Amino acid sequence: MTVSVTIASFALGIWLYLIFAHGAFWLGRECDDEDPPALPKGHRWPSVVAVVPARNEANMLPRSLASLLAQDYPGSLSLLIVDDQSDDGTAAVAGSMASGASRELVVVQGRPLPAEWTGKVWAMQQGVAHAEMLGKRPDYLLLTDADIEYAPEALRRLVVRADAMGLVLTSLLAKLNCESLAERALIPPFVFFFQMLYPFGWVNRSTSAMAAAAGGCMLVERLALQKAGGIAVIRAALIDDCALAKLMKAEGPIWLGLTDRVRSLRPYPRVRDIRHMVSRSAYAQLRFSPWLLFGTLVGMVVTYLAAPILAIFAPYPANALAALAWILMMLAFQPTLRRYRLSPLWGATLPLAAVAYLAFTLDSAYQHWQGRGGAWKGRVQALPVKR
After folding, report:
1. β-strand 140-144 against 77-83: which pairing, if any?
2. Domain that holds residue 302
3. Is 110 helix (H, G, I), strand (E, B) or coil?
4. Are 54 and 81 in contact (CB under 8 A)?
5. pLDDT digit string, tens, across residues 281-339
C-alpha cells in the first residue's frame, strides 16, 4: 500500500467517523426552531436579570439593549449594564436608554481589572454581585453580550425551555453576520468547527462529560451558579463560556443550541477581523500546549487538506478514496450553509477555510509566545509565558 493510499484511507476513515459516530454534529438538529416544552397552566414566570458587560460598545447598545427592553417576557425582567472602563461614552448611551424605559435598566460602573481576572469575566462578576444585592434576587441570570440582538420572543422561549427541562444553563449560539465576502467564506466554517469540537447532542446529554456554551447568550439558574462557587471560579478563563458550562454541568443538565432568534450585531468585513476574533483565544483552547498545537496542525492537514490534494494529484486508487472523503466533507457542511443561506458550492471551499483557521491558531500561539495573548480592546489577558 502506497503512502498516498494510506493517507487517503485515513482521511476517508476520519470523515466516516465524523458523519456517523460523532454526535451527528453536522446536522444541526439541536436548535430552537421547534417550540420548547410548555409550562404548566398557571405556572409562575421566573424572574430574570440580564447582565450585559460592555467595553466600548456605544455603537452597539442602541440595538442590543432596545431588543432586551422589547422582550415580550411575561415575568419580571431587569437589565444590568456593566460599563467595563469604557472611553467611548458607553455608560452615557446606556444611561440615556434607561430614561423612560419600560423595564428597569441600571448602569454599573465597572471597577479596575484585578490581577488574574479576564475582562469580561470580571465585568460579569460585578453584574452578578449587583444582582445578588437586589431586594428580590432573580431566579435566572441572562449573561449576554453588548453586541447581541434578541427577537421579542427569545427570552420567553429560553426561560420556558430552562424551567420545563430543569436546566441550570441554557445557551444559544447567536446567528453571526454573514454578508461580506470574508464572512461568507469563514463564518459558516467557524460554526461548523465549533459544532465539531463540541457536538451539541453530547453537550445536552446528561450522561456525557462534554460541556460547552456560547457566551453571547447564556441563561443561568442563579442558585445553581451560587452553589457551583460563582463566577470567581472561572476568573482567569479566556474561553469563559465553555469554562462556565463545565462548571454548571457539575450542578445539573445544560443545553446548547443553534438559533435564528438571537443575532450578533458585530460585523467582520475583513479576514483580519475574523483572525483577531479567533486568535484571541485559539491557543487557550489548546491549553497553551505546543504539543497540542502540533497535533492540531497534523490533524487539520489530514482531515481537511489531504482529501482535495490527493483527489486532484494522486493516482488511482488514492484519488478515488480521497475524492470520496472530500465529497463527505462537502455533504457534512451543507446543513450549516443552508442555515446561513449560502450556495452549496461553498462546500468545496471548506479546506481553504481550514487553512485560514489553522493560520489563525498559529498566530494565536505566536501572540501568546510574544506576551500579547488574549488581546481584546486594549487588554492583554492571557497569562504570560513562563520563561
Report:
1. unpaired
2. 3-25+275-369
3. coil
4. yes
5. 898 888 889 999 999 999 999 999 999 999 999 999 999 999 999 999 999 999 999 99
Residue 49, pLDDT above cutoff 80: yes
Residues 177 and 48 in one domain: yes
- Say whether pLDDT at 1 is over 70: no
Q: How far from each other are the two terminal CA atoms of the chain, in whole angstroms?
A: 45
Q: Which residues contact 129 (CB under 8 A, 6 or more apart)?
A: none
What's the mean pLDDT when you consider all of the chain?
A: 93
Please tell me whether residue 140 adopts helix, strand or coil conformation: strand
Whole-structure pTM value: 0.94
Same domain, 280 and 361: yes
Hey, what's the cell of 200?
451539541
C-alpha cell, 98: 434607561
User: Which of 209, 239, 272 is where one domain is finished?
Assistant: 272
- Cα dihedral: 26, 30, 33, 36 (round 10): 170
123 close to 55: Cβ distance less than 8 angstroms: yes
Lowest mean pLDDT among 35-39, 67-71, 113-117, 224-228: 35-39
The answer to whether residue 379 is domain-embedded is no
User: Do 17 and 34 have their domain in common?
Assistant: no
Which of 222, 252, 272 is a domain's end point? 272
Q: Are residues 303 and 325 in the same domain?
A: yes
Beta bridge partners of 144: 217
8 Å CB contact between 195 and 26? yes
Helix H, strand E, coil C: the string for 287-310 is CCCHHHHHHHHHHHHHHHHHHHHH
- Return the C-alpha cell found at 123: 465585568
Q: How many residues does the chain have?
A: 387
